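Give me the fold.
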Amino acid sequence: MSLKTFFYPAPLTYHGPELRPHFILTRFKIEGSCLAAFRGPCEVQTDHLVDWEDRMQNDHIAAKEMIHFLGEFFGITLREGVWIQRLIVSQLESILFNQGVHLHRSGDDLYVTGKGKEKFEPGKKLTVSIVTASPVSVLLHLGVNIDATHAPVSAIGLDDLQIDPNALIETVLAWFKQEYSSVERACVKVRPVI
């Protein structure tokens, strides 16, 4: 079964429990591996955080509006899911760099250091992300601030950078579907070596 991508046009708030098996199936009626996207507020309290380090520090995640990329992938390992996460974050970095945004990646986080001649020191956080495993799948959430108001850290949003969120969603989803298909093809077109 091939990967599907989907952009849900209505606003949805991300609270954290959406990162669960079959949420994409039950909410969007899409079966199988999928990377979905929607826009809306982010309000994740400590008890809904998946990252143990963040939970132990009583952190929370908040923003007035984010792009939420939500993925569920079947038949892969947690390590492969983390590689997918890092690949998407790296692609986001490249897309935004090509639009004049100065930023750097630290693991699965993007920090903006400026746009054009304007500089932000130190870098302001643009993204949040986590990958985890369920009994049946690997799950991913990647949030990209649109309006970083209410963020508990020094943050910035796409609105500040004058980047169109919908265009970014469409670009990332189209790129990911093509990249995923290319990887699948690469796995089946080679001669085995014995």
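The first strand starts at residue 4 and ends at 7.
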